[in-house]
Amino acid sequence: MTEAMAAAPLSRAELEVALRAIGAERYHNRHPFHRRLHGGDCSKSEVKAWALNRYFYQAMIPVKDAAILGSMPDPALRREWRRRIADHDGSAAGEGGIARWLALTDALGLDRDLVVSTRGILPGTRFAVEAYVAFCRTRPLLEAIAASLTELFSPALIGERVAGMLAHYDFVDAGALAYFAARPPQAAEDSAFALAYVLDHARTSEAQQAALAALRFKTDVLWAQLDALWLAYVDGRVPPGAWRPEP
C-alpha cells in the first residue's frame, strides 16, 4: 500500500480545507498575466489574444461536461449536471455563456469566423484544453467532478477582472463583459454541488488523494494557458500559425 492509501482518511472538513488550499496556492488569479490584465498593463492586442484563446476553453466546457454526463448512471445526477451544458450553450442561438463570450470578442474587434474556427489559437492553449477534456472523458467520475472545483475560486477572480478592466480599458464596457455578470452565481451553484459530491464520495484516503490531484491538474491546465499567452504576446514569441496582432 502507498503512504496515501495507508493513511487515515481526512474528515469532510479537513478535505474541504485541503481542496481550498489548492486554490489559494495554485489558482490562476496568481499568474502574472492576470495581474497584468487586471491592472491595466495589457495592450489591446494582449487583451484580444487573451479573449481569442480563452474562447476555445469556453467553447469546450460543454463538451467536457457532456463527457462527464456520459459517465453518470444516476438520472438525478445527470439532471443536475446537464444544466451546466445549457448555461454555456444556451437554449437557443445567441444565448448562453459562449454567445456572451463572442460578444466580448466582437467588441474587441476580432473577426468572429476566426474566433469560432479556433485556427488562430496558441498550441499551448489547444493542448491544455484538450488535455482537460480527455481527463474528464477517461478518469473516474469522482476525479472529473473534483477537477471542476476551480469554480470555487472563480467568483472572486471575476469581480477583480470586471473592476480592473472597466477601470483601465476604454475599449470594453459592461456590455462587452456581460459573460462575467452572469457567471458568478452559476459558478457558485455549480461548485457547491460539486463540492458536496466530492465530500460525500471521497471517503477513503486513496479517493481523497485522487480528488486533490484532479484539482491540482485543473489548476495546471488554467496556468498553462496563461503561460502560453505570456510567452507569445508579452515576450513576443508567437508560434507559427497563431494569431498575430496587426503591426
TrEMBL record:
Alphabetized InterPro entries for the sequence: Haem_Oase-like_multi-hlx, PqqC, PqqC-like, Thiaminase-2/PQQC
Keywords, in A-Z order: Oxidoreductase, PQQ biosynthesis
EC number(s) reported in the record: 1.3.3.11
GO biological process: pyrroloquinoline quinone biosynthetic process
Reactions catalysed, as given in the entry: 6-(2-amino-2-carboxyethyl)-7,8-dioxo-1,2,3,4,7,8-hexahydroquinoline-2,4-dicarboxylate + 3 O2 = pyrroloquinoline quinone + 2 H2O2 + 2 H2O + H(+)
Pathway: Cofactor biosynthesis; pyrroloquinoline quinone biosynthesis
Pfam families the record matches: TENA_THI-4 (PF03070)
The Thiaminase-2/PQQC domain, residue ranges: 19-227
Top-level division of the source organism's lineage: Bacteria
Any GO MF annotation of the entry: pyrroloquinoline-quinone synthase activity
Enzyme class: oxidoreductase
Oxidoreductase listed as a keyword: yes
First and last residue of the signal peptide: none
Function: Ring cyclization and eight-electron oxidation of 3a-(2-amino-2-carboxyethyl)-4,5-dioxo-4,5,6,7,8,9-hexahydroquinoline-7,9-dicarboxylic-acid to PQQ.
Similarity comment: family membership: Belongs to the PqqC family.
Name of protein: Pyrroloquinoline-quinone synthase
UniProt organism field: Aquabacter spiritensis
Source lineage: Bacteria, Pseudomonadati, Pseudomonadota, Alphaproteobacteria, Hyphomicrobiales
